[in-house]
Sequence to fold (620 residues):
Amino acid sequence: MAEEDSNEDLRKIIPFVKSWRVLYAFVLGELLVLIILFYWFSKLVA
Amino acid sequence: MSYIDWLVMCGTVFLIVGYGIYKSRNIQDIRGYLLSDKDMKWWTIGLSIMATQASAITFLSTPGQAFNDGMRFVQFYFGVPIAMVIISIVAIPIFHRLNVYTAYEYLEQRFDLKTRSLAAFLFLISRGMAAGLTIYAPAIILATLLGWEIHFTCVAIGIVVLIYTAFGGNRAVSHTQKQQMAVILVGMIVAGVVMVLKLPPDISFSDAVFVAGKMGKMNIITSPSSWAEFDIKDRYNIWSGLIGGTFLALSYFGTDQSQVQRYLGGKSLAESRIGLLFNGMFKVPMQFIILFIGAMMFVFYQFNPRPLFFNHKEKEAILMSDSLGTKYLEAEEKYHSLNQEKEAWIRIMLEAKQSGNKTRETEALASIHNLEAEAGLVRQEGIELIKSNHPAANTNDLDKIFLTFVLDHLPPGLIGLLMAVILSASMSSSSAELNSLATTSVVDIYKRLFHGDTESRNYLRASRLATIGWGAFAIGFALFAGNMGNLIQAVNILGSLFYGTLLGIFVVAFFMKKVGGTAVFLAAVIAEILVVGLYVLPQFFPIIPDIGFLWYNLIGCFAVAAAAGIIQAASPKK
Fold:
């Protein structure tokens, strides 16, 4: 399947996400944000 | 449990089972039975993946883990989002394009029949025994705390799961897992809210978080301060979570048929991918919430009487003995007295915090730590007494702490809901395991090895019979598990011994295009011997380091890839 078709399938399900790369970046970005937040929280309450 | 608890628990379980049977009533063939006719939406896939991984033990032990060791266990899940992205990019497009029923079918197309059969065999061994434990582990806890008969509990859980799994296959499993996951999430959040509401009126939520933090339960991120301090035996730190956890998640979600089958039923490549990424996004927050409930439970027991030992059955047994029973009661009284003194110092610490008196706060914290250490010694004394009374007693009560809280402190109705949570979690994992074991047995063994992959036979009947067969095996295994001593630990280790090799075979398949079937087969055998050696040899030769088994996944995977590359390079060119 071509990348363009594949992105089109994604937009049919989640219209506001432009491409798979954006979705992958979002998932990994969320992990990074969570780790930073957890680290900050650990230091704050320790 | 009261009548209303029984009503809530049984009503929830029967509604879910009935829904599963209703949704799968029109299954006509093996494709419908094993792959749900490939019509699953992403949210069903995502919830199904989460429900498969979250067994009853997850919800029973995880709060106890935070209670005992703090929240650092959450780091174990940091590899999940990374693995979900890698599997979405690499594995799912291939599985969808080849239209396979099992992950191992792909291995025959990429390599040969022997490699496919080896991978299917490794999966059947490890998952087959784990299926018995998925029934046994929650059954033993429910039986202990509720006074139920253990054999009856195992058979009851097994038969309920078997009814809808054998009837409706993958479709029934996936649809019931949606409801089970909803019950689990609602139940856990309600339990957490009740726990906070039951704190003394003068202790606010922020006070509870402060106390948990000061007493070392908010250690969410842990890391050695230098490489010299790095301990390979330490399972839960940010590096073992990110590196070891990624390899474990790649193995589990990418090569274990119980998970692969969840997303192979997707309506399209996009639905499967989004379902998997959904799991990647929500897994860490979900585990954080469950661990946070455990940390709050720790605070709750700072202001409420805390049992010396959470296993009621062992306590009742020691109280039957005159001499040991008296000593145990003395230890319990001393423990309560130390905890009351500690509670007073916690209140002093909170007052000092509010008035900004840092010196007093530090002084109070030092006293709290001393009393906590002293109480720990008294608890250890109590455990030794339990062992003297009953040498085979299970002295690990982590998985009983949350259930003790539920039974002692939740109102009627909610106890039934939490029991439904535990049964739902047990059923969701067991059903997916039985379904995947049946699929691999029929597709990779029965259909491929005995009928040459022909489509002429009625494989639907064979699939139902295989499900019943694996269900009977799992129930039988669960019934005998109690008599087999340290088997639970052995089976957990057994699973981790095979995952690295399985992942290595798939890594070679995806990324090392020049490696052929014989090279990867031999490499897999060598890697398996290496990993088993790393587990067995340190027990006989202390000079060989004992490695935490999270790292076996990484070692097994690299060993397969390296050995396959070397064997292929050394092989004569055709």
